[in-house]
Design a protein that fits this description.
2 copies of one chain form a homodimer. A 3-stranded antiparallel β-sheet of chain A has the order 1-3-2. The first copy, chain A, has helices at about 10-35, 40-45, 55-65, 65-80, 100-120, 125-139; strands at about 55, 85-90, 90-95. Chain A contains 6 helices and 3 strands. Chains A and B meet through helix 1, helix 2, helix 5 and helix 6 of A and helix 1, helix 2, helix 3, helix 6 and helix 7 of B. The structure holds a DNA duplex (30 and 30 nucleotides). Chains A, B: Pfam families: MarR_2. Chains A, B: InterPro entries: HTH_MarR-typ, WH-like_DNA-bd_sf, WH_DNA-bd_sf. Chains A, B: This is MarR family transcriptional regulator. Chains A, B: It comes from Falsiroseomonas frigidaquae.
Chain lengths: ~140, ~140
DNA sequence: CGCCGACACATGAAAAGTCATATGTTCACC
DNA sequence: GGTGAACATATGACTTTTCATGTGTCGGCG
């Protein structure tokens, strides 16, 4: 008799979380090797190529962090010289410094290479997967 | 002219993380309404229907938490009467108390209902999606 | 104009997570 | 059987996140 499938092994939200975690694991290891924390990387990636910068709120949403967490992360990144704040009315615009932009460029290149390798291992299904993930994200 | 696609908007790892986050959002809200933190839920879900319990290490892996984090989470859950530890040689076996099992049952039922609704919205693609996620998880 | 509610962000105290390491256990090998 | 390496978990110092709330700004409306 086969063991009945345990709930957690077929639960969609668990599969999503585990897939996300597993897929990111080795890239995250490379980040750590370079001394870059995951939240820092997310901000850099989000700001990469965003000429006009972004607001704290926008960064929070796309990086999946709460607003106070983001504020404090930005404190540290500013202290490290990666970005600068500019108050604009009631919102704060965040822009990378040249140091931050250089780091972002370098990491984005590495991420792209890593992604390409991952996609190659699921070549047929990849476009459909991305589309499906987008659908889920859109609700 | 269309804006060039920003890196982060087409990056697979970001899509996975965002999809996972978005898909979980309203269930997590229900957990919060019941006063249950997400890591607590994950442990309950993992232990649900695991007659023999699990070890700290196993829980850490399936719940995507590091071992010291798990140890301390288990401290709190034990203090709340949700589970009990039993040292077995060099490992510690974790089993739900009846209180914990009742809570787990209730939450798992709610999670199944929530998942069913989500799957219904992506009926055709769901099996393929799960298969793909499993492939990613397996590396 | 002046006021009030909504908004965007910052901050302080408390909780949770992380990193390094300590403790206790098993296993292989001599 | 004793010793040392690998394992499984626990714990302590420190960092990050969270929750609640504070501060400053815009918007509409009397």
């Amino acid at each position: 008799m086969t063991t009945p499938p345990r709930f957690v092994e077929d639960y969609l939200l668990a599969l999503l979380a585990q897939a996300s975690h597993a897929a990111s694991a080795d890239f995250h290891a490379r980040l750590k090797a370079r001394g870059v924390a995951v939240p820092v990387w997310r901000v850099l990636a989000t700001l990469h190529g965003a000429a006009a910068g972004a607001t704290v709120g926008q960064l929070g949403k796309t990086c999946l962090m709460q607003q106070p967490t983001m504020s404090k992360l930005l404190d540290r990144m500013a202290a490290d010289g990666l970005l600068a704040r500019t108050r604009q009315g009631r919102q704060t615009r965040i822009a990378l410094t040249s140091t931050g932009a250089a780091l972002a460029d370098s990491l984005v290149a590495e991420a792209r290479a890593h992604e390409a390798a991952l996609l190659a291992r699921h070549a047929e299904a990849a476009p459909a997967l991305k589309a499906l993930l987008r659908a889920i994200i859109s609700g």
